[in-house]
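Appendix B, example 12.
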Amino acid sequence: MSEADGIDEVVDGSLRQSLMAASRLAETLARMRQESLRQREQQDTQTAHEAQVREAAQHAAVQGALAPVQKDQWWDQAQPQDIAQVHALAEAWKDYDPTALAAAQRIQYEVQNRYGINTRDVGTDAAYLESGIEMISAEQARRAAVAEHQKGMALIAAAQAEELRAKAEKLAPEMERHQVPVEYLNNPVLAEALQSAHDAKTPAAIEAAGAAVKERLYLIGKDGINGPTIDQLREETTANFNGAGEDHFKDAAFVDAAKEWHEAKLLAEGGFKGSPDQPLEQRYERTEAELFARIEGMGRELENRVTGDDSKRLKDQGEKAVASSAAEYGSADHHQAFAASLAGTASENQVQGRLAAARGEGTHPSTALTQGKAAAKARKTRGGAGVAPERTKSGPSR
């Protein structure tokens, strides 16, 4: 065997080993490639499956959220925000889900019919749709409330008309005797007087009831069925009673007292005499005295509030007013100084009331500001026909 043959054998052996190693490496790489492809395929399958699951869940959620829009009851109770939300959802899914497409069509129909809004013009702008529905819903609610109120007032008017008819039928003899129009029965005092005339049995009771009816008819002729207004009472009372002001007419009891005095005054001027049990003179004096008492009482309450808040400052100001006007007490300059001394201690109306009281009473301002020193007095002028003492500007005189 030659030396060359030995070398060839070594080379052949190395080559075979290299080829075998390369073959094993290629086989390993092929297996790794196949494993990688298999894993990738598995991952793609898992991802696709998960995507399908998510999509199915989303479809189910969308269908569940949109299902109520097919029910009339839902639309009767839905708020603007609810409608805007389902509209946006249906618009987003209508190209992918038949349920969403059907919901979008129903929403368009209901919104158009109920609110006059075309959802095609809105698009997916939920905030704009919500705002539009809220505005139209508010207007619809206002109109419904107005209609309900009108309906209620119509029912009340019908009930009152029926009640008036029944009263007129029952009191027909008395109404005919005194020539009372049916609409006058809306005056409760007249209706009560007519009822008393209807129920009266004795001559004295019949006479008293008839006199009450005549008085009330006279007052209705002067003031109307509903009587004088608060503005009318305010103007008349403040013109005849010193100290009466705006604040007094915020008190219902004072308004009632002013109305009673006003009616007694009108009846006295009309020549009415009242009843044996309560002559009109006595009635006038009672109503006048009650007004005096209420004016004085509210004046004292005002003084207590003013002096209680700042009594020292009020006292100092009063002393200054006395010193500056002692030589000319009762003059215009004196009253002007007195009004200036009260500035800042009460409202303008209250200051004017105290100033008017000082002029009418003729007492010193320091006395006028002291609780309980003098009662309110009325301006004295000659009035109408009469029965009451001379006390008020336009009231009855003796």
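The two ends are 178 Å apart (CA to CA). Residues 228-398 form one domain.
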